[in-house]
Design goal:
Length: about 140
């Protein structure tokens, strides 16, 4: 489900909270993968060959892949949440996270983008404040 549909479904505050939970679960996975790597490397004896050493090295390799993926996901999800969260207050009345989504689009399309700007890494959202009806764009 795309960002605009998810925010419409659960609201911005819950979406933001879930993004933070998701990113920190990825950080926890990365940390636990690092512990697994350290524990397995401590048990590896390269002087001995056999299934035990091979299995431990395979676990280290899999944990390293999981650790790298989890770290990248942590950074990506946290950056996305912070990108939208930094502009979620109404510029006129300063009300936080109380808006309706008017339009959305990819980073390279839409009437709300300056053609001279570089493409946005995330979809833009055109929103309107529920309190004062001011419209603005997320992210900016």
């Amino acid at each position: 489900m795309d960002i605009a549909a998810r925010i419409r479904l659960v609201g911005f505050r819950k979406w933001y909270e879930r993004q933070l939970i998701d990113s920190h679960l990825s950080l926890t996975t990365c940390f636990l993968s690092g512990i697994t790597i350290a524990a397995c490397l401590e048990e590896v004896r390269l002087a001995e060959t056999g299934w035990r050493t091979t299995a431990l090295l395979a676990i280290v390799f899999a944990a390293a892949l999981l650790c790298a993926y989890s770290w990248r996901r942590y950074l990506t999800v946290l950056e996305r949440a912070e990108t939208y969260g930094s502009r979620s207050s109404c510029p006129a009345c300063r009300t936080y996270a109380r808006f309706d989504i008017l339009a959305s689009g990819s980073g390279t399309q839409g009437p709300y983008l300056d053609p001279e700007e570089t493409a946005l890494p995330y979809p833009w959202l055109r929103v309107r404040c529920r309190k004062c009806a001011t419209a603005w764009r997320l992210p900016d």
